[in-house]
Amino acid sequence: MIIHPTFALGTVWICSKFTALAEDQPYQKSPNKSEVVSILEIMGDNNHLDKNVIRLLVENYYEIVTRGMSKQAQVQEKYERVFAH
Q: Do 49 and 14 form a contact (C-beta atoms < 8 A)?
């Protein structure tokens, strides 16, 4: 199966937007799930994001966010071990 480059790039872009919305940032707390979903749906309705990928992200929201938080904690712990002297 060949995946068109624009589909792959679009999927990465959507995931980047999702991460920026769904995860806490140094400058702000993440909005709740309904706010994240609302923003993504508006972007999908305006044809800025693929609605099928949005659906997959929404269906797996808690698993994705939980795994992301776990990875962030692992990286933070490693950073502190290596650089915090």
A: yes
Query: To 10 degrees, what angle do helices 51-59 and 5-22 make?
Result: 40
How many whole angstroms separate alpha carbon 77 and alpha carbon 82? 9
Rounded CA-CA distance 62/45 in Å is 23
Lookup: tokens for 4: 């068109």
Q: Where does residue 40 rank: exposed (0-12), middle (13-18), buried (19+ CB within 10 A)? A: buried
Residue 5 has pLDDT above 70, yes or no: no
Backbone angles phi, psi at 74, to 5 degrees: -65, -45
Residue 2 reports pLDDT greater than 70:
no
pLDDT in tens, 8-24: 777 788 888 888 888 88
